[in-house]
Design brief:
- Two copies of one chain form a homodimer.
- By secondary structure, the first copy, chain A, is of the alpha+beta class.
- The first copy, chain A, folds into two domains: about 120 residues, Jelly Rolls; about 80 residues, Winged helix-like DNA-binding domain superfamily/Winged helix DNA-binding domain (Arc Repressor Mutant, subunit A).
- Helices cover about 40% and strands about 25% of the residues of chain A.
- Chain A has eight helices and eleven strands.
- A four-stranded antiparallel β-sheet of chain A has the order 1-8-3-6.
- Chain A is globular.
- The N terminus and C terminus of chain A are likely disordered.
- At the A-B interface, strand 5, helix 4 and helix 6 of A face strand 5, helix 4 and helix 6 of B.
- The structure holds a DNA duplex.
DNA sequence: CGTTTGTTTGAAATAACTCAACGGGAGTGG
DNA sequence: CCACTCCCGTTGAGTTATTTCAAACAAACG
């Protein structure tokens, strides 16, 4: 799908697990397009609590905010061994064939990132532990499907239960119990970093009620 | 500070409590600058659960995303009676004296909004009920202080306990008990929609540990 | 083969929720 | 001015979801 020549015209960088793609203090002069592996943006509190605020999957651009000239606000770390193309910022506007109209791309990228963050706020604020985990699984699967990385309800799932815990805001051992529950009811299979959605409909049903459409009442507290 | 002529050159619109500033379906052709009153962006789930994803306070621009030409993604509602200037989108680029370089303004506005969302993800994912409420109070106070709307540790606080609950993701009655605890220890006073920070240092201390700086270890799970 | 990293399990503790009811204040209409 | 309602804050008691601690186990790794 992608032009092979333009793909290889950028430097392919390798990262080990836990290696930084970005740190808040240092200024980054390029943008990454992930080729293989998963990355995560997170925030760490002084007492050790950690919250992962975004996931970056293969095929996705990591941190479009950087295009705005600012340095990263939160660290981004490789959650698995990772390969990514480093796209120098100053080349982006000169390559309409590759990144298209840069301003429009950046805008739409930021809007998408914003919606992702809003989605997770709702997730963390409203949903139960089981719903959050099901929703995470659905989101990951859908994003991988969007870039053709799924086959017949199967996809990669390299996240540690500790990492899932830091995404969905519940404790690691509770993540374990919820996952066991899901496996026990035959909704998913999850072994060896591979995920199978045995019953996608049931899974979506468990990931919380859908949002209402716009025309509903502003405030309805019975 | 603001030029009176430019201020009054935009239409001042009034909203009753619970009235919409924006609805997801309809296309909005202007941006609001809030003059007085509070607004909130939220999402409502089919079973009645609601999560407020952003607050808009006097002096702030409501929904800079609209500048990108897209319609609103989530509804925005007046949480109090509200007055706001409606700034037509097509006038923004023609008025460098008022909004400055529009592209740069929009970018920085989006970045700020993004950081706000990230902050709330961390808040909802990591903090306890008391910490979340203290953090909300701190954030609101700081934002009001930034636009000169505080006097000697006092500011407005028109949010209902139900609304606070839908911001911090805990139940209304628990919000009540947490607030009583804070009042009981003399850290804050909160009566008649007015807030007093009796002990700002203690309040900040209760709003959770600060974030680590960038140079810390990527993963530290003891 | 030992060491580390990740998963699984149990039992006790606790944070937060639900349900239900009461009370005060602010409007509103008679 | 009273009675009414509605919205909001406050309480209490019982329940549930989730956490914590601790330990054992399995799998990956050098």
């Amino acid at each position: 799908m992608a032009n092979h020549a333009t793909q290889t015209s950028f430097a392919l960088r390798h990262f080990r697990r836990s290696e930084f793609l970005a740190r808040p203090t240092e200024h980054s002069d390029n943008l990454y397009r992930i080729q293989e592996g998963w990355a995560g943006q997170y925030r760490l509190l002084k007492d050790g609590r950690r919250q992962i605020t975004a996931l970056f999957l293969p095929g996705e651009y990591c941190e479009p905010q950087w295009l705005l000239g600012a340095s990263a606000t939160l660290p981004v770390v490789a959650l698995t061994p990772l390969r990514a193309y480093a796209i120098p910022l100053d080349q982006i506007s000169r390559r309409p064939d590759h990144l298209g109209d840069s301003a429009a791309r950046v805008f739409s990228g930021m809007l998408k990132a914003m919606r992702g963050r809003e989605r997770w706020i709702v997730n963390l604020g409203c949903l139960t532990a089981t719903e959050r985990i099901c929703d995470l699984i659905c989101e990951v699967y859908d994003r991988l499907e969007g870039t053709g990385q799924t086959i017949k309800n199967r996809c990669a799932m390299p996240l540690t239960q500790y990492e899932i815990a830091d995404i969905v805001g519940i404790s690691p051992v509770h993540v374990n119990r919820v996952l066991q529950g899901l496996r026990g009811t035959g909704i998913i299979e999850l072994r060896n970093r591979r995920l199978v959605l045995c019953d996608p409909a049931a899974l979506r049903h468990m990931s919380g009620p859908p949002a209402t459409v716009g025309s509903s009442a502003a405030i309805a507290e019975p």
